[in-house]
Structures are given as structure tokens and as C-alpha cells.
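ok, trying the design again with the full structure, not the truncated one.
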């Protein structure tokens, strides 16, 4: 399922306390060997970043001199100019609340190092030296530079009026209150491209944000490879990765530099700049989400302290202190100078968008591909179970609603894959007290068009007899009235399957399981639940996708099913024969509940964070009071209804979020919701 994003309007309530960090990667327009001009270009980038609320900024490799200086790197005049430039940059940025890197050559003890100076509030936190120096193809770095010293050989360097460590084994840890989990690692260009990148060990040691200072020339096909490299590294390390590339101004004697800047988070590319532009990529990365991914992955191994309490890692830690979740330090000073920039103030909004339907890809092509993949997963799971048990018949309660329609489509596909005859699928319509002519007609028509067997078995007489047996007044349309119908239908399906030697195919979906919107030992039960990990918002798209595949009369029926209100049809219809009982009027919009479910199960977000995210995503669709009311309903029902999920039938997992008690979600049935509901109370 998808983490992709669509554009939503901003809401008035911000997410500054919810673990978002604004990160940027920028390319200044430089001139080769013109340190003074390059310094001003770097300073302009840093100021623009500060004005946009950036708290961690990556700039390209050797950007104070230009990467293409070649043998000029040996020149003492150039090296001295870089030291003076660094001192100037530190002095000019001491009032700016961000951490940034600047690339420069540093000569010490008979060696020359390719370094990224890590700066924050006028302090030089460290000089991260490049560990892997390419000396192949167009690269000749070993002609000029020495690889970074090892962890036990770190240098202490006096430079720019300060003393700082020079090493490739440093991490930078934030000490701002509420940001204790923010640690920044820095690597330089080729360090990412090798088989064992330093960022792997940095992440293991606790780094959640990686800054890469790069100067990578552009050739055909390299852009796609670079995108994959940065994205996959952020996924493997559960980190945010900002990649800053050299661009305009580098020598074109033999190479061209395109200046593409990238920001990725956990495998998703959040921001990038166009090729051949001196631009800045900015994105708000979610540190909470990254930490949640690491915690849920049992193969993610954190370093373990020894008996002295010392971590068994090779990195030294340098602390820095900025209000990482946004302050407005330094903005006012540059408002006039940066009038063209989007200036952020104390009410700075998170510039991050969240899709309304996180289970559903936004791109139509991706959606079609995803639907086909899910159909195949569902059908393959069912086909394997049928083949394993030697079962050649299936029984399904076909109501004319969305879920049973999807279950029938999956069953047909499974039978086709096994070369079983579709007539051995029995679709059963069981009209009750709330069944409407529309749904009954659609069920019969769909079964006929798909070539499956169809039976109609009324439950009226059986349920009325049951009411007499338990002394229930049929005029009282309470939960007993409703659930008696659901359980009678399940009994019919189970017994009919027994008589045929077949399987009852479950129809309930993931959203209903989350809310407990199923009758215990009624529609809650089956012999294989093909929809159990498909949320309602995705069910709609699967049925619509199937309609386009079939076309003709089947498409007409499926589209009418999509237009029918979601309902269990357990209460009598209205006077004009329309559905009287609409599920979303009773338990809330599935679009909201699927949103809540995704962020709760996938990342373990707190109700307050989910609420503030929802305000952005659903602005213009639902107001604050509506979102808050249904959020409360979601948490109350999610906790109270776990007992139904603890005894679910088998069913195939198709996405990253599922509620199977045997796999992804194990929760005590009597867990209290008080802690979560009390947090929601504070949002009122």
C-alpha cells in the first residue's frame, strides 16, 4: 500500500511539536577558485534556508573552492583563503538557528583532506573528512587528498579561530528539549556509492538524518541511478537523507555538473530540484516516523552499552543546540534582503502534505498496477488454500454491496487460475428485513454475468421463528434484531458449504475489523477471509478497476454497486424502498477511519499528531469538530472490539497494515483505551 502524497491545503493548527524537522539541500552558484565570491554565495544559501525555517542544510562538496580546482588544491593561498572564509561564515551565521555543512580542503600534518565543516550558531562542530576517495574514470582525488583518519586517529585542528575534531567518525546530536532523538551524520559524495557506506554505521549509532555533500558529474542514466541510491539508502537505514550536488560554476573542461538536490525519507523521495539549476530542495522529514520504523524492525540493531555504560560504536558525538522544531531566530534580520523568499515566522507551518487516502496511490497508473497486484495476492491466497484442502467448491453470501462483490470477483479469479468451473461457486442472496430491490437485483445480475451459480434463500421465516424462540419482539429493532439476521445468514452459508463440500468465503474488510463493525460469529466468521487486509477506501478502487477490466453489463452492475450507500441492510427500508441504514452515518466516514488506522498501525503515532495531520489532509472536507468526534469513536471502538479480531479466520496479507492476530497485530482484548482517549480530550 502506499505512502505517496497528494497536495492538500494548510490548516491553521501546526505540527511543530510532532517530530517534524525541516531539512534542505542547496547548490550555490560558484566560480572555480574564487573563494570570496563562493563564500558570499554559500552565506546567501544559508540565510535563505534559515528564512525558510530549515534546521539542517547540506551544501555541496568543496563548495568554497569548487570541486574542479585540480592541482590548485595544493596552493597555499587557496587553502588560507578557505580558512578565512570559514571564520567569516561562522561569524555571520552565529545568530541563525540551523546546522549546515560547507565543503572545503583542509591541510594538516602533511596531508590534505576533503572536508565538510559542520557549523551551528557560530560554532565549528567538526570537520568531517571524506573516507573514500575515487581514483577511477574521470576522478583523481587521491592525487590531492588523503583519506579520512580512522576513529582512533582523529585529529584536533585549530582553524577559523576555533578547535575542532577532523575525522569521518563523528555524529552531531541535538540537545534541544524534545529533540533528543535527532542525531545528524555527514558523508561526502563517494562515501555513499561504496559497498559499505559510512552512513550505515552512523545510522546504527543513532543518526536519523544524513547530509551528503556531493560533487557528482552528470552523464546519461546517472540521474535515475542517483534517485534509486539515495531513496534506497534512506529506506535501508530508516533515515532522512539530504543530498546536495555541485552545479553551475564548476569547470566544464571535461565534466558537466547538474546540481540536482534530493531529500528522501524511508524510501520516498520527498523533494528534488531540476537539473542544471542552482536551487534548494526543502522538505519536512518526520523523525517520529523514522524512529517508529526502527523500533518495529527486529533486525535493526542498536549499539549495546558495555559494563561501563559505554556504547560499542566507533563514533564520537558532538552536541549542538537549536530549536529544531522551528523558531524564528535570524529571520527578521534578513526580511528585506530576502523579500522574494517565503519568509517564515513564529507561526511557521509544516510544509508537508499527507494524502487523504494513504492506502490508495494517487497516480492513476500506479493505482491500476496496485489493484492488479492486490487482486492477484487475494486470488493466489484463496487458490492455494483451495488446492491444499482439495476443495473445488465455494459459497459466498452476495448482498449486492461492495465487500461481497469484491470477494466474489476474487473467488472467480482464483477458480480461473485453478481451471475450476465457475458454476461451482455458489453466490447466495439471503434477503432479510432490510434488503432492497436494488442490492438484490445487482447481486443476481452480477452472479449471472460472471457465470456462477446463484441461489436465493430468504431468512424471514427462520429469523421470525428465532425471535419467537428467544421471546424477542420483532417490533424492537435493536442489536438483537440486527445480529439475529447476520448470524442466520452465516449459518446458512456454513451449512450449505458443508452440504457441497465447499468453503465459505469471507467478505469483511480491514476497516470493518478495525471498528469491530461485524456481528460476532456472524459475518465476522468464514473459512477464508479474502478481504481481511483490504481497507474500505481501497475496496472501492478495486471494484472500479474490475469494472474497467470486464466492461459491458458487468461494468454497469459494478458501477451501480459503487454508487450504492454502504449498509448492512438489517433495518427495514424507507417508505420508498431505499436503504434506511447507512453505515457511515453510524460509525463515521471510512475515509477518516482508514486515515486514522493507517497512521496508528503503521507508525504508532499519537492521537494528537494524527488529529493535527488530519486537519491538514481533510481541510475543506471535514471541520475540526467532525474530525475530533470521529477520532474519539475510532479509538473507543478500536480498543473495545479487539476480541473480534483475536479469533479471525485466515486471510491473505496484501499491504503493510493488517490486523491478523497471528501476524501483524497482537493486542490484549481487554486493553484499556483511557490513555488515548484522555489525550483526545485535551484536543477538545
Amino acid at each position: 500500500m502506499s505512502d505517496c502524497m497528494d497536495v492538500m491545503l494548510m490548516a491553521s493548527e501546526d505540527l511543530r511539536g510532532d517530530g517534524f524537522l525541516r531539512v534542505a539541500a542547496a547548490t550555490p552558484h560558484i566560480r572555480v577558485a574564487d573563494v570570496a565570491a563562493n563564500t558570499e554565495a554559500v552565506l546567501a544559501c544559508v540565510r535563505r534556508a534559515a528564512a525558510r525555517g530549515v534546521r539542517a542544510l547540506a551544501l555541496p562538496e568543496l563548495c568554497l573552492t569548487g570541486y574542479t580546482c585540480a592541482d590548485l588544491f595544493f596552493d597555499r593561498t587557496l587553502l588560507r583563503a578557505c580558512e578565512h572564509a570559514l571564520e567569516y561564515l561562522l561569524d555571520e551565521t552565529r545568530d541563525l538557528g540551523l546546522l549546515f555543512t560547507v565543503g572545503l580542503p583542509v591541510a594538516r600534518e602533511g596531508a590534505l583532506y576533503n572536508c565538510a565543516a559542520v557549523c551551528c550558531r557560530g560554532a565549528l562542530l567538526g570537520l568531517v573528512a571524506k573516507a573514500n576517495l575515487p581514483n577511477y574514470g574521470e576522478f583523481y582525488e587521491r592525487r590531492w587528498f588523503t583519506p579520512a583518519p580512522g576513529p582512533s586517529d582523529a585529529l584536533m585542528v585549530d582553524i577559523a579561530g576555533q578547535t575542532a575534531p577532523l575525522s569521518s567518525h563523528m555524529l552531531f546530536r541535538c540537545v534541544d528539549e524534545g529533540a533528543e532523538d535527532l542525531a545528524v551524520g555527514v558523508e561526502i559524495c563517494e562515501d555513499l556509492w561504496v559497498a559499505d557506506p559510512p552512513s550505515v554505521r552512523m545510522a546504527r549509532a543513532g543518526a536519523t538524518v544524513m547530509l551528503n555533500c556531493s560533487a557528482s558529474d552528470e552523464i546519461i542514466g546517472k540521474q535515475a541511478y542517483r534517485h534509486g541510491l539515495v531513496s534506497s539508502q534512506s529506506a535501508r537505514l530508516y533515515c532522512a537523507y539530504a543530498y546536495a550536488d555541485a552545479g553551475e560554476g564548476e569547470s566544464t573542461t571535461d565534466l558537466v555538473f547538474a546540481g540536482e538536490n534530493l531529500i528522501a525519507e524511508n524510501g520516498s523521495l520527498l523533494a528534488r530540484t531540476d537539473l542544471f539549476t542552482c536551487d534548494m530542495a526543502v522538505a519536512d522529514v518526520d523523525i517520529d516516523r523514522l524512529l517508529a520504523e526502527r523500533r518495529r524492525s527486529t533486525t535493526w540493531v542498536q549499539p549495546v552499552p558495555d559494563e561501563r555504560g559505554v556504547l560499542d560504536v566507533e563514533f564520537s558525538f558532538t552536541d549542538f543546540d537549536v530549536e529544531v522544531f522551528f523558531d524564528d531566530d535570524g529571520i527578521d534580520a534578513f526580511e528585506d534582503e530576502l523579500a522574494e523568499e517565503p519568509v517564515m515566522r513564529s507561526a511557521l507551518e509544516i510544509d508537508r502534505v499527507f494524502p487523504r487516502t494513504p492506502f490508495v496511490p494517487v497516480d492513476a497508473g500506479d493505482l491500476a498496477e496496485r489493484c492488479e497486484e492486490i487482486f492477484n495476492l487475494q486470488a493466489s491466497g484463496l487458490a492455494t488454500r483451495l488446492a491444499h484442502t482439495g476443495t473445488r467448491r465455494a459459497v459466498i453470501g452476495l448482498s449486492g454491496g461492495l465487500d461481497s462483490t469484491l470477494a466474489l470477483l476474487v473467488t472467480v479469479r482464483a477458480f480461473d487460475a485453478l481451471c475450476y468451473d465457475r458454476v461451482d461457486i455458489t453466490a447466495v442472496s439471503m434477503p432479510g428485513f432490510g434488503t432492497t430491490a436494488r442490492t438484490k437485483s445487482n447481486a443476481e445480475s452480477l452472479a449471472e454475468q460472471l457465470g456462477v451459480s446463484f441461489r436465493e434463500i430468504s431468512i424471514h421465516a427462520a429469523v421470525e421463528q428465532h425471535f419467537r424462540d428467544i421471546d424477542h419482539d420483532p417490533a424492537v429493532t435493536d442489536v438483537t434484531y440486527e445480529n439475529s439476521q447476520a448470524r442466520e445468514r452465516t449459518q446458512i452459508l456454513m451449512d450449505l458449504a458443508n452440504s457441497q463440500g465447499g468453503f465459505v468465503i469471507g467478505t469483511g474488510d480491514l476497516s470493518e475489523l478495525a471498528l469491530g463493525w461485524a456481528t460476532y460469529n456472524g459475518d465476522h466468521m468464514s473459512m477464508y477471509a479474502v478481504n481481511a487486509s483490504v481497507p474500505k477506501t481501497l475496496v472501492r478502487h478495486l471494484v472500479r478497476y474490475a469494472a474497467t477490466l470486464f466492461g459491458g453489463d458487468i461494468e454497469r452492475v459494478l458501477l451501480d454497486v459503487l454508487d450504492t450507500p454502504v449498509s448492512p441492510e438489517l433495518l427495514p427500508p424507507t417508505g420508498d424502498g431505499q436503504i434506511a441504514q447507512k453505515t457511515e452515518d453510524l460509525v463515521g466516514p471510512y475515509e477518516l477511519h482508514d486515515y486514522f488506522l493507517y497512521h496508528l498501525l503503521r507508525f504508532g503515532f499519537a492521537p494528537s499528531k494524527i488529529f493535527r495531520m488530519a486537519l491538514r489532509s481533510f481541510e475543506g472536507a471535514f471541520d475540526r469538530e467532525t474530525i475530533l468526534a470521529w477520532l474519539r469513536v475510532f479509538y473507543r471502538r478500536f480498543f473495545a472490539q479487539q476480541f473480534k479480531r483475536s479469533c479471525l479466520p485466515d486471510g491473505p496479507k496484501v499491504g503493510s497494515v493488517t490486523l491478523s492476530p497471528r501476524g501483524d497485530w497482537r493486542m490484549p482484548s481487554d486493553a484499556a483505551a483511557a490513555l488515548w482517549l484522555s489525550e483526545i480530550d485535551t484536543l477538545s
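Keeping the full-length input from now on. The radius of gyration is 30 Å.
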